[in-house]
Structure to design on (232 residues):
DNA sequence: TGAAGTGCTATACTTTAGTATATCGGTAAC
DNA sequence: GTTACCGATATACTAAAGTATAGCACTTCA
């Protein structure tokens, strides 16, 4: 058993958790979709218009993904015709702090790389 | 000028900063390379061996990338043969807190999705 | 002398993420 | 009665990221 394997294991677990987080955060559209929903857009077409440039195929796919990740909820209302609404979950709220950390680090990083 | 454009602009700037951060963090190897260097590996082959599974081509490319992003420094020593050492910069240290946030959110998220 | 290590680079390939475009069944407005 | 909106889905494509494999100029080590 190599000397560093314990730390190495811990490191691999860390990387897995980081990867879990990144799966949500690092796709091109997921954050934008959540932002659009937070901004009050509930309907498919509203979100599509708010973001601009996303294809319905991507939006459909990412909405499903976000629902599986319990970040948004899809509600179907039995109106004529059926109305569908997407809302963010409380769990999605916990993203706010994280995104803010990413944002501030991103700003700091840009200064470090290009000079103030 | 649409009503929400100010918030929308701020939102787009946020997304840019987040994207800057993600460019560093979300590649398959960059964090692993930095971790390997933090663990005391300074030489190309040491890093390669520590990580395992990375091709020399990727390692070479990512090291250059990390240097451009001022997260590591490449030093050439005029020995026979020349020795090359990679070290992490103080700026790279600022990643630790961020990665830790990603890690803890990742753990929390996994619990939220699969239940405790 | 020849095998193995060092720090790479080149070429070609595969895999994954995202795009473009067309379409669908329903409803409602003109 | 045809045009447009809604919430999508299907098929096919392109671009970006990463992999596989070989090799190079050099230097030890046995």
């Amino acid at each position: 058993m190599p000397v560093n394997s314990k730390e190495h294991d811990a490191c691999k677990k860390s990387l897995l958790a980081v990867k879990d987080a990144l799966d949500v955060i690092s796709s091109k559209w997921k954050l934008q979709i959540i932002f659009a929903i937070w901004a009050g857009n509930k309907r498919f077409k509203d979100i599509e218009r708010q973001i601009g440039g996303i294809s319905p195929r991507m939006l459909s796919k990412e909405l499903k993904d976000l629902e599986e990740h319990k970040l948004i909820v899809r509600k179907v209302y039995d109106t004529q015709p059926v109305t569908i609404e997407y809302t963010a979950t409380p769990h999605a709220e916990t993203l706010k702090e994280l995104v803010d950390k990413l944002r501030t680090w991103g700003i700091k990083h840009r200064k470090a790389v290009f000079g103030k």
